[in-house]
Amino acid sequence: MSKEEFPSLNFPVSPRLKWKAEGDKYLFWDKRRKKYIVLTPEEWVRQHVIAWLETESYPSELIAVERQLKINRMAKRFDIVVFDRKNRPFLLVECKRPGVKINEETLHQALIYNKNLNAPYLLLTNGMKHYICAIKDNKIDFINQLPGFE
Question: How does residue 5 score in pLDDT terms, banded at 50, 70 and 90?
Fold first, then answer.
């Protein structure tokens, strides 16, 4: 693995990961999934997002990672969903590896996932650029900061 695959990212915090090497791969202990996970460039971004959400007072126990959902009878997996205290989706996060542009296709993917979830907020990120959207009455507004968690 090269440093280019795991660059410094544009987040105010970095995750603290318990690492181990296995051949030419690095694995880390994921406390949510309760197992070692191969560290990929997209996972690198996902772990930074989780660390950031936790520093912004999003409760760790309400953050779900890579869970399956059905879309038109097809199994898909979201990257991150933060639930509110009533167990309703609050924030859907779509992560891309660094270097992948966040574009209309990325937004479309998140919106398709969100049809099933109905989260009022979306976060799209490649680790370098972050786009946060508020969704209300089928209208998408880009906002400048994470929504406060109550």
Answer: low
Task: Output the CA–CA distances (angstroms, integers) from residue 25 to 11, 15, 32, 56, 74, in the order listed.
Answer: 24, 18, 21, 31, 30
Q: Is residue 149 part of a domain?
A: no
Q: Residue 105 belongs to a domain with what CATH number?
A: 3.90.1570.30
Phi then psi for residue 144, to 5 deg, are -95, -10
What torsion do the CA atoms of 66, 71, 73, 78 make, to the nearest 10 degrees? 0
pTM as predicted: 0.91
Tell me whether residue 15 is exposed, middle or buried, using C-beta atoms within 10 angstroms of its C-beta: 0 to 12, 13 to 18, 19 or more.
Answer: middle
